[in-house]
Amino acid sequence: MPAQLRVYPSQEEAPDLDLATPSVHVRLGDLLPLIALAHRHNYLWLQDFLDDEVSITPDLYEVLRAFRCYRPSA
User: Fold this and answer.
1) pTM of whole model > 0.70?
2) 71 HSE (CA, 13 A, CB side)
3) Using CA atoms, how far apart are residues 51 and 65, in angstroms rounded to an integer?
4) Neighbours of 29 (CB within 10 A)
């Protein structure tokens, strides 16, 4: 018996579903090595999440902003 195809509505046709609100808290120290490994080995599933937003503390945001402009001297 051939497999039956299932048709799912596209995002535009999908009913108004609330996006899942973040409910899992993870330490950055636990998360970064996993993301770095996935990035280094070019795992395709990581690309599925590149547009997702993350919440960070204001002090980490300030450090990251400063780091972005940091240019090490020779």
Assistant:
1) no
2) 1
3) 19
4) 7
Which residue's structure tokens are 């402009």?
A: 69
Residues of the chain with pLDDT under 70: 1-20, 22, 74
pLDDT value at residue 47:
93
Per-residue pLDDT, 25: 87
* Two structure tokens written together for 43: 């795992």
Backbone dihedral region of 42: left (phi > 0), alpha (psi from -120 to 50 degrees) or beta? Answer: left
Q: Give the integer Cα–Cα distance in Å for 70 and 64.
A: 10
* Strand stretches in 1-74, DSSP E: none
- Residue 70 identity (one-letter amino acid): Y
